[in-house]
Amino acid sequence: MTDLLSVYRGPEMPMVCVTDFEAHARELLCKSTWDYIEGGADDDFTRDDNIAAFKKFRLRPRYLRDVSQVDTRTTVQGQEISAPICISPTSFHCLAWPDGEMSTARAAQAAGICYITSTYASCTLEDIVAAAPRGLRWFQLYVQTDRQLTQQLIQRAESLGFKALVITVDVPKTGNRRQNIRNQLDLKKMLMLKDLRSPKEGNSALRLQMSLIDSSFCWNDLSWIQSITRLPIILKGILTKEDAELALKHKVDGIIVSNHGGRQLDGVPASVDALPEVVAAVKGSMEVYMDGGIRTGNDVLKALALGAKCVFLGRPILWGLAYKGEHGVEEVLNMLKDEFHTSMALSVSSSAAPGLTGERAGKTHPRRRFEIRHELHL
Question: In this structure, are residues 119 and 140 in contact, taking their beta carbons and an 8 Å threshold?
Fold first, then answer.
């Protein structure tokens, strides 16, 4: 009887918020993997500020409006998604779950949202596409010093049906992540980088070398990328109006306002704080998205109120993956979608994208749909 009692722990407590998945992932993952996923750069100030910054904003609800039919659908680069809540590019999903990015892709397909696949995925692009052939996928690119390899990656992604190219611009070199150094984490020994290998090379031992990222890549080099692909080009990592204006000048198709989850340069603005500046700079000429610090449906609504077309999730997806594979990722996505639906109804707004409810030809600025104000803490 004593043995039976020691094994029985009662029914599993229900997951009621995204941070519940964080707690479970921390218990399930080894320390070095947890530190790799959670770690920021230097003092982790920007990583933590990404979350804290959302608490400075307050929604201004307007009542006695019909919200009996709330529609969370919207579009990104002309493709419909079930809600403005998608998946950021993060690397090495096999650290969190054996099937890695294949499980993530299946969850994204089931949820009807976009998944940005990382250059540093632990599964091949071919395997990811085969796992979720109907899913909406974008490909995230770290431009390599080997331009031929870069071109092969882009053309391979395009031939496999990826719908956009997301160029990460904030990693000319890797940020100073202290926990990885303390743990002596060497990903080159842990994982084979499959996507930097031609499928014809079989099990060759090509491994990840972060030094392959081209630190000389500049604005004028975008014209070369544009000349070799027909995919829309989105820049990830823009934080200032000056760079947003340069993105307009160079005719890119979108911006993801991001500080890389606080993993690169510490002490930069929280993504949500940088968002209005970038939105104002592009003046509606391109879609603006954001990632960093999204933990609730309220956060999603605040980002949209400040001008984002869509938000992308990083760490919460890995928490869900560690918890229960693709089903855990689905639970995270569905939880945030449900919270966002509730926040819309209570704020009050019936549509996340008016174009999907009879105004396809019109452009409605998010501030006309959701009202928000900034709380100054002096």
Answer: yes
User: pLDDT, tens digit, for every residue of 79-103?
Assistant: 999 999 999 999 999 999 999 999 9
177 is in an annotated binding site: yes
Give the type of residue at 245. E
d(CA 78, CA 74) in angstroms, rounded, equals 9
> CB atoms < 10 A from the CB of 290, how many?
30
Name 238's bridge partners.
257
The residue whose two tokens read 């796992």 is 131
Distance CA 103, CA 190 (A): 20
Residue ranges and CATH numbers for the domains of the chain are 18-58+68-348 (3.20.20.70)
Q: How far is residue 26's CA from residue 35's CA, in Å, rounded to a whole number? A: 9
Active-site option among 24, 260, 327, 365: 260
Query: Is 341 an active-site residue?
Result: no
pLDDT of residue 188: 57
- 238 annotated as a binding-site residue: no
CA angle (335 as vertex; 330, 337 as ends), nearest 5? 95
Does 178 count as an annotated binding residue?
Answer: no
Cβ-contact 284, 278 below 8 angstroms: no
Among candidates 72, 151, 23, 141, which has minimal Cα distance to 344? Answer: 72
